[in-house]
Amino acid sequence: MAAAETFYDVIRRQGITRRSFTKFCSLTAASLGLGAGGAAQIAHALETKPRVPVIWMHGLECTCCSESFIRSAHPLAKDVILSMISLDYDDTIMAAAGHQADAILKETREKYAGHYILAVEGNPPLNEDGMYCIDGGRPFVEKLKEMAAGAQAVIAWGACASWGCVQAAKPNPTHAVPIDKVILDKPIIKVPGCPPIAEVMTGVVSYILTFGQLPALDRQGRPQMFYSQRIHDKCYRRPHFDAGQFVETWDDEGARKGYCLYKMGCKGPTTYNACSTVRWNNGVSFPIQSGHGCIGCSEDGFWDQGSFYDRLTTINQFGIEQNADIVGGAAAAIIAGAVAIHAGVTAVRATIKNAEKTGA
Amino acid sequence: MTIQTPNGFTLDNSGKRVVVDPVTRIEGHLRVEVNLDGDNVIRNAVSTGTMWRGIEVILKGRDPRDAWAFTERICGVCTGTHALTSVRAVEDALAIKIPENANSIRNLMQLTLQAHDHLVHFYHLHALDWVDVVSALKADPKATSALAQSISPWPLSSPGYFKDIQGRLTRFVESGQLGPFKNGYWGNPAYKLPPEANLMAVAHYLEALDFQKEIVKIHTIYGGKNPHPNWLVGGVPCAINVDGVGAVGAVNMERLNYVSSIIDQTNDFINQVYIPDLMAIASFYKDWLYGGGLSSKCVMSYGDIPEHANDYSEKSLKLPRGAIINGNLSEVLPIDLRNPDEIQEFVVHSWYKYPDETKGLHPWDGVTEPNFVLGPNTKGTRTNIEQLDEAAKYSFIKAPRWKGNAMEVGPLARWVIGYAQGKPEFKEPVQKVLTDLGLPVTALFSTLGRTAARGLEAQWAGAQMRYFQDKLMANIKAGDSSTANVDKWRPETWPRETKGVGFTEAPRGALGHWIRIKDGKIDNYQAVVPTTWNGSPRDPKGNIGAFEASLMNTPMAVPDQPLEIIRTLHSFDPCLACSTHVMSPDGQEMAKVEVR
Asked: What is the DSSP letter of A215?
């Protein structure tokens, strides 16, 4: 039974070689600045100490990330919690409360220094000395920093921890900040989305445990396996975009035929996420499939990019596709136009962001 | 010092102070402090919301059609209910009428939430207050099987099945890494279940964890994802096209069948697992009838689940509407969310500032200026609080009152009101539970009663899901496939200035959003949510809130282990991210906070 397996047992069973395991230990030791014996210590720990302890902390948030996590179908959340990791602290599901809960944080820092993963849902507010989020009578931000200090790696769950999300939208009354503003010396894996897709969350965790390394990240710190392409790139309604077939208003003929939602404000063309491929809730659907445009919830600052129903940019209507014969000759031009639009909206968005940053 | 509260409680803060912070297995951040007398009985209770996010401040100046997405992010546990409340508030302000199909689909979304949320609450947030996981190791799988089969036809009930679960649990415990069960209160004498009932409950804890993800697929089909499905002012965003060209891109026969199948599975799980477990557990705790608090005195429900689109009158609402005060069950009073004299919020004990804190303000005219100050008798420091001073400000939750009364809201409130109104769909199931357990009606006013009402409501919600899915099908069959009204989609069609109110019954209780719209933008937005009512601090007259009242006079078996405290708090299903966010009508004040 997996529950009794050590971390080493688990990764060997998943096909990781002894050599890769040793290499992982060396790299980890180096990244933690441990001396010559560090790698051996880590290897010993992983071989004898079972599942990787995970500390899941909650700042200012709405708990949608936890709710999403438990929706995971493969692997099942149950199996992640019972067999893959040791979820020693998570305010939302843990049995202990008060000082019995707090004691776990202290014990983890001492017993598993450098060996536990810190997963953060939500973010710390900095106004009022951090006291807009109080945990155990103290500012959440202080506890967060304490737990980050001994962590091996940090996972930023969702838009809150990654970018700031709704409480950091203008005027950000509590001065809520993404966790990389207060955790400066640890690798942080950002798994954005409001919330992230369940299987993306468990996929990131199982990748780390299975391959014994952090996933390849893009420049913004997101795992490229899930966040390197736009929703639009793999949207099943994309052919309607290319053909100039759009929903013009809610519940119109186009909506009933499943046309492209671009004109209704869909942010799929500027949003990097796996919604159009992995889809939601074990692949049942995703926002566009169910008739509402993407609101861009995995993008930095998506709350402050205008209305969710504003079109990304003003473009001329494409030729309406009546049948394949009429469209034939114009196809090349349409495709060229579509490519230009993608470049255009991305550039516009980048410009807006840069302007904001300069202004701030 | 002993204080008599106007709402009938005797507070004595002279005994040993016990602090529970964080209160876990809830949404958000909550702290509770109690004083125990010499017999370890709670004689004073102080409940503190310890977070503030300011979402309504952020809403000011935004497009009202976007408000659902912002307010939905108030809470990801009761996901969707704020969004529904928000679109109703905007539609009320703009006099938008939604199609009948949109009403059915919205009801399905809301009922799906009720069923899902109650199930997850019972097993994953509340069960460990009643179920001793470690005791399950001592169970006899055969006897467990016999127990399970005696109470339910649920097929996963063989001795081998329970033996497997026990084996997995044993290896888990023996690994020494208890994960979420670490430092739990295992072995505490306040646990009353025999090992076999504990093992059965642990098995169902795991099954419910697997199953809950199925229920929410109804949100995914109609709203695109869960948590945080998509909504629309004027209707629902999913178009219906059952058999026309391009039907595969809309709500079609396959999607409708999918929903229908999930509804059947949901009803099976609730009826064959949740309800039998609830009754089995309750039968071992029927002598533990603490935690009633305000439920026997003052309860309120706004009502929800309109039978007819756009008809929010009491007659159309399938969940009851009304208020009971002073324990007078013979009179259910009408409530008016627009009347400035009915719902008012006070801040004398909240970390906010009013020009005159002796007075309450109606949400349409609410003022919120955060004011984090601690009283003179606080122990510890400003950033390391050891003990709060409840004579001063002590919570980020405001104190809402209905005609001056502290009220309890939530499933128990709804079912007490339905019972008092004599509605058979509420009265009969309650009566059956009481009869089966051999308890008088007064037993309803307890922690156990709150937990039982939630289970009955999940069962009710499952049946209503079937009802509204059938209603949707019938309406489509009659030729109506409309899902959105776009007549007033464009801001040019709106009045220059208007206001509205939307309400729902969230899983945790009465939820209201009040909006003012000016020049096409949000001018003021205010949410008064269930946990604001239940988690409320004291008001200027000294009335204590529902959480505080519920903890009073409860004996603790082991004072150092807050099992009884969290058991009762969990029975409300607290949601702190919901409760602690309020808005100033003048957003400029908030900006000042940021630059200080």
From this structure: P
